[in-house]
Amino acid sequence: MLTDREILSTLEMLRNEHLDVRTVTLGISLFDCADQDHERFMQRIHDKICRMARDLVKVCDEVGMQYGIPVVNKRIAVSPVAVAACAFSASQMVAIARTMDETARATGVDFIGGFGALVEKGMTHGDRALIEAIPEALAGTERVCSSVNVASTNAGINMDAVYLMGKTIKHAAELTAGSDGLACTKLCVFANIPPDIPFMAGAYLGVGEPDAVINVGVSGPGVVKKAIDRLRSANPAADLGQLSEIIKRTAFKVTRVGELIGRQVAGKLRVPFGVVDLSLAPTPNVGDSVGEIFQSLGLKAIGTPGSTAVLALLNDAVKKGGIFASSYVGGLSGAFIPVSEDLNIGEAARQGYLSLEKLEALTSVCSVGLDMVVLPGETSAETLAAIIADEMAIGMINNKATAARLIPVPGKKPGEKAFFGGLLGEATIIPVSTQGGADTFIRLGGRIPAPVQSFGN
Amino acid sequence: MKKMVISVLGCDRPGIIAAVSKTLSENRCNIEDVSQTTLQTEFVGIFIATIPERLGEDELLEKLQEPLSPMGLSVLVKPLQESGEWQPPDSEPFVITTLGPDRLGLVAGITEVLAQSGINITGLRAIFRGGNDPRRNVMIYEVDIPTAINRSAFRTALYRRAEELELDISLQHRDIFETIHRV
Fold it and tell me: Which residues are within 8 A (CB) of A271 and not within 5 positions of it... i.e. 6 or more apart?
């Protein structure tokens, strides 16, 4: 017999605390679609993606209904297109992105990731063509996401690629000036990109992965916040050790949900189950915010002194609870701090508690990086590249994934708002200090060598 | 040896199980299963015991009534039917939970839909304390849903009935609760 408490507390998490599975992402390899003929390649990827993902949305909805746990997003991640389509030109890459967009519509998923490249140590013809295609590809499609890995602990930082990505972001923003640079919300620049991320915009299917695989991204910042609030209300003397314990236990529960749903979906689709990504992923809804957790732990807002310590505690407790709950953990696994996608974090930025510099400090202990950070339109490609380089350095030295999803909003200044809609949310533009101060450094180019941390053998 | 079912009902107090089990033991009756529950002030216990062939149903009832009647407890004794007429079909375990203001006919309304679909209830707790606080008016049914029935039609019928009864209802596979709460 189940206990009343087990049943009612589960319902409480579902009804009032936004417990859900944030994303079930089907990874599909495109390597067996490789062809020298561009039309034939596009036909092959179209057919394969549509065939493999035909029942994804239906099965996710059925499984979600069976357990009473909504699967909010269903997504597809494919092999890095720069590898699978290495022989093609930039304009052909744009056409491939359109084909991917069509498959996303046909299968009913909200995003398809993998229009990306892995260039941490250098670039092939395909990598260059793909990066050149990114602005037009993302501006001309609705559901395609792109990620480019420009650094790793083992390879160092490809500064030529960093500069190129600064220019690419700038160009993508200009092409979507009418929608506040929307294309940039679908583009992540990574260090140490994991091969099995289910979350967008970073999701792609790594080179060593199976032909098809289900990866799951859990959510649950609302559940964690309420658990902290309940403990503090029941025991006002609870210290950070006890609070860390309650976060750990809550992360365990949230992860178990993801594992169960993921395995059921994988079983019904007859593809292997990959990993659970233990991330606290917020949405722009009240009560589904990572930023609110900082307030529950006693800070005035995320960004005030103490925030980095809180995030370190939070991230670690989430991992400890989640790792025990799942047999395979992967992806980014930690707390996300996307500025525009989290109402509370967006508000902290608007009120000036959260600066670019503090965000960067936070990313040294969180799972992602400078995520959905909205910058003035006048920010130069060189400054964007320098911000990316800083973020990549944090990832490289700390042997962790970091990313930059930066949106320089054309024509807008600090304090003005950018609107992206839906899950992407809205945010106030934060100032970038010493604009242009890094131009000479960025133009030096080359590759920052791999750090001493990489020599573990 | 034969198996008997003994049920005892009455106002809860210390010593009920002790009195029943002492009488059973003195008469060489071996308890195989026992379960008890209390609702508000009322106790109910159900025992399944093997009893000697020579001991009749009426005789056992008399022997139990001797200590239990003075305690204000009612006793029922009947032979155990080894296999019931109803055989459970292949099914999957689900949990139905309702929250909503108390009114007449809630249990009847929900269970009618279950019965119509041939769904067996394996566990039921319901608390109605009146008022509008949903947490004070809760029904939790553990049910076995036969795999052969049209689950989507059943879900639609159940949710429609809940709407008529102004109940907030959920129907979830039992595994989700075990997965979340149990290691």
Answer: A26, A52, A210, A212, A213, A214
Q: Kindly state whether A448 is in contact with chain B, defined as any CB-CB distance less than 8 angstroms.
A: no
Give the SS3 label for residue B47: strand
Domain B91-181: which CATH number of 3.30.428.10, 3.90.550.10, 3.30.70.260, 3.30.390.50: 3.30.70.260
Q: Which residue of A has its CA nearest to B180?
A: A253
**Residue A196 contacts B, CB cutoff 8 Å:** no
A257, closest residue in chain B (CA to CA): B180
Please write the tens of the pLDDT for every residue from A62-115: 999 999 999 999 999 999 999 999 999 999 999 999 999 999 999 999 999 999
Residues of B in contact with A67 (CB under 8 A): 172-173, 175-176
CA distance A254 to A248: 10
Please give the structure tokens belonging to residue A454: 């990489």
B176 shares contact with chain A (CB less than 8 Å): yes
Which runs of E-coded beta strand occur in A294-443? 369-376, 402-409, 417-419, 426-428
pTM, entire model? 0.90
Residue A153 is encoded by which pair of tokens?
A: 């602990």
Instruction: In whole angstroms, give the CA distance from residue B142 to residue B136.
Output: 19
Contact (CB<8Å) A257/B176: yes
> Prior bond to A201 cis, omega within 30?
yes
Our count of domains for chain A comes to 1
Across all residues in chain A, what is the average pLDDT?
94
* Separation between Cα atoms, residue B72 and residue B10, nearest integer Å: 6
**Cβ of residue A257 closer than 8 Å to a chain B Cβ:** yes
Domain ranges of chain B: 2-79, 91-181
Question: pLDDT tens across A308-351, in order?
Answer: 999 999 999 999 999 999 989 998 888 889 998 899 999 999 99
Bigger pLDDT: B165 vs B136: B165
Q: CATH assignment of B2-79?
A: 3.30.70.260
Give the pair of three-digit tokens for residue B169. Answer: 């209802």
Residue A17 pLDDT level (bands cut at 50, 70, 90) = confident
- Whether residue A261 lies inside any domain: the answer is no
- Chain A partners within 8 Å of B178 (Cβ): 2
Chain-chain contact of A260 with B171 (C-beta, under 8 angstroms): no
Tokens 């390879």 — which residue?
Answer: A155
The alpha-carbon gap from A307 to the nearest alpha carbon of chain B, in Å, equals 30
- From the list B95, B168, B176, the residue facing A260 with the nearest CB is B176
Residue A304 to residues A291, A337, A338, A361, B127, Cα–Cα distance (Å)? 11, 14, 17, 12, 46
Q: Do domains B2-79 and B91-181 have the same CATH topology?
A: yes
Closest chain B residue to A7, measured at CA: B177
Residue A8 to residue B172, Cβ atoms within 8 A: no
Please state the rounded mean pLDDT for residues A110-121. Answer: 97
Mean predicted confidence (pLDDT) in B45-65: 94
CB contact under 8 Å between B176 and A69, yes or no, is yes
User: Does A239 contact B at CB distance below 8 Å?
Assistant: no
Beta carbons of B135 and A66 less than 8 Å apart: no
Q: Does A66 touch chain B (CB under 8 A)?
A: yes
Q: What is the pLDDT of residues B114-134, one digit of tens each?
A: 999 999 999 999 888 877 676
If you search the block for the tokens 């019904």, which residue do you land on?
A268
Tens digits of per-residue pLDDT, A219-240? 889 999 999 999 999 999 999 9
Residue A367 above 80 pLDDT?
no
| Mean pLDDT of the region B17-31 | 95
Q: Which pLDDT value is given to residue A294? A: 95
Does the residue A154 lie in any domain? yes
Residues 96-135 of B with CB under 8 A from A: 97, 99, 123, 125, 135
